[in-house]
Each structure stands twice: as structure tokens, then as C-alpha cells.
Amino acid sequence: MERVSSMENQRKIVHLCPDDKFIDNAIRMFEDAFPQENIVCVYTKGRPANYVKNGIDYHVGVKDVLLGINNGVMNHARIVVVHSLSSAWYRTLERLAKNVPIIWLGWGADYYDIISPHCGMLLDQTAELEGRIRAGKNKTIKAYIQLLFDSMYRKVKVIERINYFVPVIPNEYATLKSARKWRAFPAQADWNYSPTGQELADYVKAHGVAEEMGRDILLGNSATSSNNHIEAFDIIDVFNLSRRKLVVPLSYGDAQYGREIKHIGEARFGEGFDALIDYMPIDTYMKKIARCGFVVMNHVRQQAVGNIIIMLYMGLKYF
């Protein structure tokens, strides 16, 4: 249980986190405000983390998802902070003592299925691809198990237990609250991940910001259908890429969707298509981005806010 065993008589802020590039900076901000008062739990399926580098106190595995994180960790909680509400945390939150407040830091994708369940977020060709992928997945045993643990009914009950909710954009609070009837709904709070913080500062300090804009084009932020990659391909294909590359991050999200987009992109753009399938260190990723002068985010809803801020800071033109 790593460092948790040394905290027996202390009440802490317990963070439930995905393995994501924004978490290190978020925990750094909490540590600045509440030094040595944070327990960091990261869902890594018990394996080493890819993105979170600093101070993981507990690697959350599949057993923790099914049964809840063990009391040796959660008994230390005076507050629980959920960084993106995923089904990985449902059982832990269901078991949590009623007197322990929960703060939910929303990421958009974790509540847009309630606000607008794919309605209007996917353009026609992407919706067709997503439908084919879902149809295949729904036939598997894994899909039935996932449905059992990730039902909308269960998600709603968990949200009704939460005390405070921080949306990405403030007006999304009222939108989510009015999206359905709730027995209880968390109060609104204000916070943000400050994505242009230390991580970007470290990169700029080490490498500087390019004086000349790169030639390549960055498309999307993940292997998720809300990026509407196929429709973006149609638009970009009208123009002659010449010596430009189309850089498409696909290492995060739905692996099957990512494989489909990689196949379609390579068929259309050949060597001009650069799919980022595998995890890469932040320095390597940022060097790839530094080659780009343009970024295309083909989302219908807000998404990738942190990435967009970083790209604008680096001087990329955003579409």
C-alpha cells in the first residue's frame, strides 16, 4: 500500500484519479495548498502508470473496482476528490462513509452522456462507425459484465451522493442539473486544472517555443468518437498536404476506434498520416506537437480544453 501505511492516525484528502497527463499538475496544486495531506490513488489496473509520474500512494486494480478500494486507504479520508467520474470509482464511493464529503472534478466526457447521450455530438459518418463498433462490442461477455457495473442508474445514484461538482465550463452545471430529475444534486464549486502550469513551463524552459511555426497539422486529442475524425479527414483531404504530416493522437481512449481511424487515415493520406498509437513521454509528445503549426479539433461539444490552451500558448493556429 506504499506510503499509506505511514498515515494511520491522519485524515487526508484522498484523490481518485485516472492515469492521465493532467494529474501530476493537479496534485501539485493540492500539495501547494495542503502540503502532505494528500493520498493519491490512480487506476492503473495494478500496473505501472504511463502518465502519472509523481507520488502515487495506491495503484488501483480490478479487484478495487469490483469491491471498492480497501479500508486501509479509505479510512484515512476526510475528503474524497474524484478526478473524472468513471465506473472504476462507483463501488468505492458507494461504500464511503456518509459523513465524508465528495468533490467531483468533471472532465466533460464523464457527464455528457447524461446531458446529451451521443445525440448531436457525432457527425453522420462517425456515428455510423461508432454504431458498428458498439454492435460488435455488445455481443461479447465483457460487454455484459461492463453493463452490470457501468449502468446509468448506478451512475445517477453515485452523483446523488456527491457533495460538490466542478464542471469544465461553469454554465454546464445548470445544464447537467436540468438534464433529468435528481433526488439530490451536488452544489457547484469552482476549480480548474491550470493546464498551462508546471508541465508546460518545464518544457518551454528546456526547449523554448519555436520561433517559426511548424508545417504539420494536429488533429484531435484522443481515440474517442467525439473527435469526429472521419469528417475532419474529408475537409483536410480537399487541401494538398504536400510535405505536411497529419499528426493524430490515438493512444488514449477506445482502442478499437483508434485502430479503425488509423486504418482509414493511412488509406487516405499514406505516409502523410502520423498516428500516435503508443504511449510516449511528455517530452517526445511535445516535440511532435512543436512540428505542428495548425490544430483541428472537430468536436461538437467542449473537449480537450487543456490541450487547446497549450497549443494556443505554443502559437498554433486553432480550427
From TrEMBL:
<dbReference type="GO" id="GO:0009246">
    <property type="term" value="P:enterobacterial common antigen biosynthetic process"/>
</dbReference>
<keyword id="KW-0808">Transferase</keyword>
<keyword id="KW-0997">Cell inner membrane</keyword>
<keyword id="KW-1003">Cell membrane</keyword>
<keyword id="KW-0328">Glycosyltransferase</keyword>
<protein>
    <submittedName>
        <fullName>4-alpha-L-fucosyltransferase</fullName>
    </submittedName>
</protein>
<dbReference type="InterPro" id="IPR009993">
    <property type="entry name" value="WecF"/>
</dbReference>
<dbReference type="Pfam" id="PF07429">
    <property type="entry name" value="Glyco_transf_56"/>
</dbReference>
<dbReference type="GO" id="GO:0008417">
    <property type="term" value="F:fucosyltransferase activity"/>
</dbReference>
<keyword id="KW-0472">Membrane</keyword>
